[in-house]
Design goal:
Layout: E1 2-5, H1 10-19, E2 27-31, E3 37-41, E4 49-53, H2 60-76, E5 81-86, H3 105-115, E6 120-124, E7 139-142, H4 145-157, E8 161-165, H5 170-180, E9 184-187, E10 189-191, E11 198-200, E12 212-219, H6 223-234, E13 240-247, H7 253-259, E14 264-268, E15 276-278, H8 281-289
Parallel strand pairs: 1-4, 4-5, 5-6, 6-7, 8-9, 8-12, 12-13, 13-14, 14-15
Antiparallel strand pairs: 2-3, 10-11
Helix pairs in contact: 1-8, 4-5
Bound molecules: ribose-5-phosphate.
């Protein structure tokens, strides 16, 4: 097996290689002045099981094209098998045609990966895991929720209430609760498909005087999780923290969350960010050691 960290996941890729005790094969890359990507494998991949590690956080389109170029090139260069580790798989939120005429974006992405002959995709907290069975590509969907919860447990948050958002599977809040052991709940959300605005149901929660950790798969603008922070604040929660797997943070997000009352914001390193304090390296390594025919831990952070 050879590990090739892609342009978007240099650090994570190196960590995975180190933990597997393998030498990472470098990917030589640059951007042309007009924005196109140039990529070259810095080692021989013929006959090898090639693990390309490339997340597709911002800028999503560039990182996605780079991923496809690498997978296809590895196959064309004679790789025996190509595994794409895509810690954050972009476009997964557009998991159907919500309004007529819209693109079904994640389907297109999966079609492209399949066309590039990827043998296996390993990802983390895919937005809506229930649709994975509809695609030909073999996807191993890992969960980083336990790792995030452990981060808080190790920092004096044992016994905190675990809260998840949306029509999210309660088993996700349950995963966090297994570590934090302070009880768990979900707040139903509704998105206006035209304006994009999200509304949270004003639901009473047993959080008075309690520490609360709010988990979401993604924090982007911070709008959704801010509403949840305010809601539990109104209900008398003590310390309120925000956690997500994929920090697609826009410029104002962290300031916005702090202004709205989030004491701490923590994310994983599926996407590098100033709050990517929890590494998904161990779960990726574990998955790579597991046969691709077995769908390892399929744990949704959000399931409809
Ligand atoms: C939505 O479906 C996702 O699970 C997240 O809740 C959403 O992407 C968060 O976005 P924002 O931080 O912009 O509210």
């Amino acid at each position: 097996m050879i590990i090739v960290p892609g342009p978007a996941s240099q650090e994570l890729g190196r960590r995975v290689a180190d933990l597997l005790n393998l030498k990472a094969v470098p990917m030589v890359y640059k951007s042309f002045p007009d924005g196109e990507s140039y990529l070259r494998f810095g080692g021989d991949v013929a006959g090898e099981e090639v693990v390309v590690i490339q997340s597709t956080g911002p800028p999503q389109d560039t990182h996605m094209i780079q991923l496809l170029l690498m997978v296809d090139a590895a196959k064309n260069l004679g790789a025996k098998r190509v595994v794409a580790v895509v810690p954050y798989l972009a476009y997964a939120r557009q998991d159907k045609r919500f309004l007529s005429g819209e693109t079904f974006s994640i389907k297109t992405i999966m079609t492209l990966l399949e066309a590039c002959r990827v043998d296996r995709v390993v990802t983390v907290n895919f937005h809506n895991p229930r649709i994975l069975k509809d695609f030909q590509v073999s996807v191993t969907n890992l969960s980083a929720v336990g790792l995030l919860a452990k981060y808080f447990k190790d920092r004096d948050f044992e016994g905190a209430f675990s809260l998840t958002l949306g029509k999210i599977a309660p088993e996700v809040a349950n995963q966090a609760d297994k570590v934090l052991k302070g009880g768990y709940g979900c707040i139903p959300t509704k998105r206006d498909r035209l304006t994009g605005k999200v509304k949270l149901e004003e639901k009473p929660l047993p959080v008075r005087g309690e520490d609360v950790i709010i988990f979401d798969d993604i924090i982007s603008s911070g709008g959704t999780i801010s509403k949840a922070v305010k809601l539990v604040n109104r209900q008398g929660a003590r310390r309120i923290c925000a956690a997500c797997v994929h920090p697609l943070l826009s410029e104002e997000t962290l300031e916005r969350l702090s202004k709205n009352g989030a004491e701490v914001v923590v994310a994983t390193d599926t996407v590098p960010s100033p709050v990517s304090l929890v590494s998904v390296t161990p779960i990726i390594v574990q998955a790579l050691k597991t046969s691709s025919t077995v769908k390892t831990e399929t744990a949704p952070l959000r399931a409809r």
